[in-house]
Amino acid sequence: MILEVTSAVIMKLREDASRAAPEECCGLLLGRHGRIEQAQEAANIAPDPRRRFEIDPAALFAAFKAARGEGAQVLGYYHSHPTGDARPSATDREHSTGDSRIWAIIADSEVAFWRDNANGFASQPFRIVQ
């Protein structure tokens, strides 16, 4: 299945990564039915935000609560690699849960999408839509 991502989301991911550098940005990918329509930035509360990310639990709680109502679904997460590339790092792989959610990784203005599956991360094909 090809993931659809709006051009506005791609632009926001790049902007968030640029603004946060040299620290990692992070946030939530929201949408419905295999289409990411919103990127919601969250505070990176990791002890060392230059090398790791940890999404503020309050942002996670609020997004999942909204999704139980009529809100957009939490399809995945995003973060940046200010000094790396747009592939899952060793730390990312350690945190893989196999929950099938999407991870977007932004590095040097490149945005790549990965699916967290039972075998770790698999590259997720996507197309940009309006």
TrEMBL record:
Establish whether keyword Cell wall biogenesis/degradation is in the entry: no
Q: In the UniProt record, which is one GO cellular component term?
A: proteasome complex
**Keywords annotated in UniProt:** Hydrolase, Metal-binding, Metalloprotease, Protease, Proteasome, Zinc
Pfam families given in the database record: Prok-JAB
User: Any idea where the MPN domain is?
Assistant: 3-127
Per the record, the coiled-coil ranges are: none
- What is the name of this protein? Proteasome lid subunit RPN8/RPN11, contains Jab1/MPN metalloenzyme (JAMM) motif
Upper classification of the source organism reads: Bacteria, Pseudomonadati, Pseudomonadota, Alphaproteobacteria, Sphingomonadales
